[in-house]
Structure formats: structure tokens, C-alpha cells
Specification:
This protein is of the alpha/beta class. It contains ten helices and 14 strands.
């Protein structure tokens, strides 16, 4: 039975996973909505991945996690490797596009840029404060226009004269969109204008001060929108590559990081059946006043993080009445 590696990327909007073999070939994959419940999303994700991995005859020997809930899910899955999104996305992209110089990524509620030189990430920036440069921005405007966001790409490509939309703020964009629709701008032109607005917002904020060299790879859920891809290409004056696995790149990177770590451990899909929860706790053990997160499985303390000194874990374990460390 060939050894395989599981990578999980848990974001605020979507949760992704892949299983790869020693050659880096993908044996299984899954993409679904987080729906505000990362633990529940990973349970559903494992249910989708398990039969695919079994069908490939794969035995998972190492797990990597990334994304906003990487530590939580890492504790849940007993991950050998827990890495931030920048590292995971860079690793995943370089595995498929070794010559990449600029990585653009726009997800549901955040966006990032990674600058790569000679196969090494040398700079990055993230935007997590405003939704105007993310997929949530497009989704909000799609609801206002009563058009499925999946139709935005094809309709944007049909536009003859993209409407200028004030896209620096979601509130202003909605007001501007309503005004432009009221004075008769065609809907396709408005949609193309929204795609251009998200690109300009991204470049003016996340990409500000960065040297964007080619080749450029665009990834994340928004990369599936052909209108945004065209807007990036027009704004940068170059071809923008979109990989078919762009929406899974963080998970691919996490799996590769697990593989290359050399760390191995037993993994069991039964993790999806276990009673798993987290609790927040104010430590109060010293002047740091750390806000701790305690992960429990079947009412037993698995892990504690958020502490800046050694008192945190012990106080967390003591505070969980009836709980004992695993």
C-alpha cells in the first residue's frame, strides 16, 4: 500500500483537502464550504476524502494543515506539520509553476500576494481588514444584482464598456452600483466594472509597493471568475496564469510540507467520529493576560495555544473540570 500525505486548508469561507503520493500526484481532493464550523467542515471533508483514498489504495502517513483554523484542525487530526498560508501557498504553487515570480491570491474573506525570486518567497502582504478586495465583495454585489456570482465571469467578458465602480469600500461600491444601474448602465458592463474594481482595490492595497514580475499565477476561489482574470491581465499588461488546481493550492502545499518534513504518524479517518470541541479561556496567570484556546477530544485536553509562557497550558488543563491531558 503506497504511502500518502494529507493536506488540509481551512479558511473562513471554504475548506479544502488533498491527498498526494510520494511523486506529488493527487490521489484525492475535496472542496466545500466551511459554513462557520471548521470542525464540522473537516468531518464532512474526511467523509469525502476517505473513499477516494481507499480507491487509490493509499495509506496516509503524515498530515499537514494550513489556513485560519490550522492549529485547531491540526490538533483534531494529529497533524505532523502546521504552517501558515503564505508558506503553504508558495510551496503548492512552486510545485506546479517552478518559474513563478508573482502569486496573486483572492479568497472569500482575505487576499494575499507572494513575491518569489529564484524559487524562494522573498516578500508577501495580506489584506484581512476589508472585504472590498475579496470574493465576499463580489458575492455581496451579486446578491444586490440578483445574479448568481458564478455568472459574473461570462457576463463580464461580454461587456463592451466596463462601468467605473468605486470599489475601495463595499458600502460605497453598493451605492455606486445602484446609481449606475439607475442611470441605465448595462448589467454586463456593471459586472465587468465590479471585476475591475476588485482588481484595482487589490493592487492598490495588497500589491502596493510590490514589484510584480512575470510569470504571474492567480489562485484562490476568485481565480475561477474569468472577468477578474481578464481585469488582472488588463491592469498588469501581461498574461495571468490560472491553474486548474488553484483553489486547492494551500492544501497541496500543506500536503507537500507534511511529506517533506520527514515526520510520520498514524492517521485514522475515525477522527471524523470523535467528540471534538474547543474552549476559550482567559489565562490570568501573569501580566500577559493571554487568551487561550483549549482543544479537547472526547473531553480530554489535546492541545493548548495562545499562551506566551509556560503557565498557560497548566492553567488551561486545571480549569477544564473533569478533563485530563491526553
Amino acid at each position: 500500500m503506497p504511502e500518502a500525505y494529507l493536506g488540509v486548508d481551512v479558511g473562513s469561507i471554504s475548506t479544502k483537502a488533498v491527498v498526494i503520493d510520494d511523486a506529488g500526484e493527487m490521489l484525492a481532493s475535496s472542496y466545500l464550504w466551511t459554513e462557520g464550523n471548521p470542525v464540522g467542515a473537516v468531518r464532512r471533508l474526511l467523509a469525502e476524502i476517505e473513499p477516494q483514498a481507499a480507491g487509490a489504495g493509499a495509506r496516509i502517513v503524515s498530515v499537514g494543515t494550513t489556513g485560519s483554523a490550522r492549529e485547531l484542525i491540526g490538533a483534531m487530526l494529529g497533524a505532523q506539520t502546521v504552517k501558515n498560508e503564505i508558506t503553504a501557498h508558495a510551496m503548492g504553487t512552486l510545485s506546479l509553476h517552478p518559474e513563478v515570480a508573482t502569486i496573486l491570491e483572492i479568497g472569500g474573506q482575505d487576499s494575499k500576494i507572494i513575491i518569489v525570486r529564484g524559487g524562494v518567497p522573498v516578500d508577501y502582504a495580506m489584506n484581512t481588514l476589508c472585504a472590498a478586495g475579496t470574493g465576499a465583495f463580489l458575492s455581496a454585489q451579486a446578491r444586490r444584482l440578483n445574479i448568481p456570482v458564478e455568472e459574473f465571469g461570462p457576463r463580464a467578458l461580454r461587456a463592451t464598456k466596463p462601468t467605473r465602480i468605486a470599489g475601495r469600500c463595499t458600502v460605497f461600491a453598493e451605492s455606486d452600483l445602484v446609481h449606475k444601474a439607475q442611470i441605465g448602465h448595462p448589467v454586463d458592463d456593471i459586472i465587468a466594472g465590479l471585476c475591475a474594481a476588485i482588481v484595482q482595490n487589490y493592487l492598490n492595497n495588497v500589491g502596493k509597493g510590490k514589484e510584480l514580475r512575470t510569470p504571474v499565477v492567480f489562485q484562490g476561489g476568485v481565480s475561477k471568475n474569468a472577468g477578474v482574470v481578464k481585469a488582472f491581465s488588463d491592469a498588469l499588461g501581461c498574461d495571468v496564469q490560472v491553474d486548474e488546481f488553484g483553489h486547492l493550492m494551500g492544501a497541496i502545499g500543506a500536503a507537500l510540507l507534511a511529506q517533506r518534513s520527514g515526520l510520520r504518524g498514524a492517521f485514522d479517518f475515525a477522527a471524523k467520529e470523535q467528540d471534538f470541541e474547543t474552549r476559550g479561556l482567559d489565562c490570568g496567570g501573569c501580566a500577559n493576560q493571554c487568551e487561550l484556546i483549549v482543544a479537547l477530544r472526547d473531553q480530554r485536553v489535546m492541545d493548548v495555544w495562545g499562551n506566551r509562557c509556560e503557565r498557560g497550558p497548566e492553567r488551561a488543563k486545571a480549569s477544564c473540570a473533569g478533563c485530563a491531558p491526553v
